[in-house]
Amino acid sequence: MELYIGKERTRSLISKAVFFISVGTNDFIVNYYGPPIRRKTYTISTYQDFILQLGQQFLQGLLKLGARKIAFVGLPPIGCVPAVITLNSDNALINRGCIERLSSVARDYNRLLQSKLTAMQTHGFEEVNCGCCGSGIIEASILCNPYSLVCSDDSKYVFWDSVHPTEAAYYKVFKDLPRNIANVKTESPSISAILIFGDSTADPGNNNYINTPFRSNFSPYGKDFVNQTATGRFSNGRLANDFIAKYVGVKDYVPPYLDPTLSIEELMSGNVISISEQMEHFKEYREIEAAIGKEKRRS
Predict the structure, then answer these.
(1) pTM beyond 0.90, yes or no
(2) DSSP 3-state of 113
(3) Does a structural domain hold residue 265?
(4) Percentage of the chain modeled with pLDDT above 90
(5) pLDDT > 90? residue 271
(6) Are residues 174 and 291 located together in one domain of the fold?
(7) What is the DSSP string of 4-17?
(8) Which of 19, 98, 160, 271 could potentially form a cystine with 257 if both were Cys, beta carbons 3.0 to 4.6 Å apart?
């Protein structure tokens, strides 16, 4: 196709085309429930996993080649296929009812397929298996640095570096959170603080204040943050906890707990506590009662 219409038009054609994938019917009716070769190697459960894995590999191959609109068809009620009834009925001439145990296999397979497809959803992102910074397959921390090339549109990427998501992906995570967060906002408008226990995907800069070579307080990290500031967040912008904090009305973004310049007011309204020493830091956090009073803290 590229020889006839060129690479760009071919790429556009593939990205706008609709792909239909239908696998499994013959695999079960003929290959598994036909000659007993497959049944000697696989249980029905492991054979379902085998077919799903093949389907997933094929789907990922299409995505890698530029396909974006893909329909994956599940199994029909294979126990109701006429040939299956004929081969499995006690009296094929009189009893033409569906073979329930085989239709049950199809239903189980479809549930597994739906679960796998849901897990693979790209949520509108075009690049899901490499990061925006550098090659996107190995760069993180110092390997993603001011000399690294970055993609032209990070909103199309799930990952900023080879480990950590983009601001766009974090926003998607925030938007997909259970709506009970909305209920919290409505029912408890006086939320006093937000405290985050997490790792580098939630860290707004605690790494700046500990002895570690793995930092992100330099560009291109933070290029989409306020004033293009590299705060120590391992992303191009805000994290999911920043969006949550703003949504519930606590603050626009969450500061790192270990920042020595934080005021008592900032500590009161929330921060991120490093996962590695989270309980010790939380005990320290409780000690701010000496500065603000027990009753006020408890409120």
Answers:
(1) no
(2) helix
(3) yes
(4) 27
(5) no
(6) yes
(7) HH-HHHHHHHHHHS
(8) 271
